[in-house]
């Protein structure tokens, strides 16, 4: 039997297994429909970085490192610091990840994480100006996917946010005054749901992602503020389903924020 045929049969068996469990109102790992897998956050993982954090979400593992250095502001925002996000899907994390320049999945991941943090106003970029129009602090967020078992969006966002709260701006190194904590004003939380048939599940595992028809990621901050929404895959959500997902994201986001980020 060919490898491709074997993989196809196994995929179909797995699909039927997941769908059968969902038809009974169950998930194959025993979680509720709106329940995250176990979350673990470790800060200060990279000694030479300005900030860092490792997040384990189930069997998915993401390392975030923060680098801060002076540079020129963007011409259209001379009075604001700069933030940029990059994601690397390390080949050892999954057989589907390939070495080389960032692919489409890595680019999308970086953009979704970046947008959620940027639009939340998590970092007070106005406080990162050294000389208006001339010199500001640039914050580089680097994400490294070490183990992939589904839901990179939420794991990566959590890692980035935790690492930013761990960050100290190295002003002394650049003879620009005393070191200071990165000015963090908000704590954005990303929540990702997928749709399988009529079921909508939070924090999909890799197997659940593989058979999902649609995906939506919502980032919220304190007070129920919605900062970013990203739709993925080819399937659709009804307006009622989107409203329910957003309401759940607000509640679950505050729970995650209170338990893991404060």
Question: Any overview of this molecule?
Answer:
By secondary structure, this protein is α+β, with helices and mostly antiparallel strands. It has a single domain (about 30-260), classed as GHMP Kinase, N-terminal domain (Ribosomal Protein S5, domain 2), CATH 3.30.230.70. About 30% of the residues lie in helices and about 30% in strands. The protein has five helices and twelve strands. The protein has helices at about 5-25, 105-120, 150-165, 205-210, 240-260, and strands spanning about 40-45, 50-55, 60-70, 80-90, 130, 135-145, 170, 180, 190-195, 200, 215-220, 225-230. The strands form three sheets. Strands 1, 2, 3, 4, 5 and 6 form a six-stranded mixed beta sheet that branches. A four-stranded antiparallel beta sheet has the order 10-9-11-12, with helices on both faces. The chain is elongated, with a radius of gyration of 20 Å.
Please tag this protein with its features.
alpha+beta; Ribosomal Protein S5, domain 2; six-stranded mixed beta sheet; four-stranded antiparallel beta sheet; 262 residues; elongated
């Amino acid at each position: 039997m060919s490898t491709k045929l074997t993989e196809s049969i196994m995929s179909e068996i797995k699909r039927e297994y997941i769908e059968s469990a969902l038809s009974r109102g169950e998930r194959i790992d025993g979680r509720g429909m709106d329940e995250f897998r176990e979350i673990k956050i470790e800060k200060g993982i990279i000694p030479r970085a300005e900030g860092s954090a490792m997040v384990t979400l189930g069997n998915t593992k993401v390392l975030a490192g923060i680098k801060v250095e002076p540079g020129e502001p963007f011409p259209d925002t001379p009075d604001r610091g700069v933030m940029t996000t990059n994601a690397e899907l390390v080949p050892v994390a999954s057989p589907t990840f390939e070495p080389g320049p960032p692919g489409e999945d890595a680019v999308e991941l970086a953009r979704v994480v970046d947008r959620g943090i940027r639009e939340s106003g998590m970092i007070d970029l106005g406080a990162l100006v050294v000389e208006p129009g001339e010199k500001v602090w640039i914050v580089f967020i680097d994400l490294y996917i070490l183990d992939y078992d589904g839901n990179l969006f939420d794991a990566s966002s959590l890692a980035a946010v935790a690492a930013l709260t761990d960050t100290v701006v190295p002003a002394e190194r650049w003879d620009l005054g005393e070191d200071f904590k990165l000015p963090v004003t908000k704590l954005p939380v990303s929540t990702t749901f997928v749709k399988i048939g009529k079921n909508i599940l939070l924090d999909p595992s890799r197997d659940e992602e593989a058979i999902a028809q649609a995906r939506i990621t919502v980032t919220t901050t304190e007070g129920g503020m919605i900062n970013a929404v990203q739709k993925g895959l080819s399937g659709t959500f009804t307006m009622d389903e989107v409203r329910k997902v957003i309401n759940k994201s607000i509640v679950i986001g505050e729970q995650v924020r209170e338990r893991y980020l404060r």
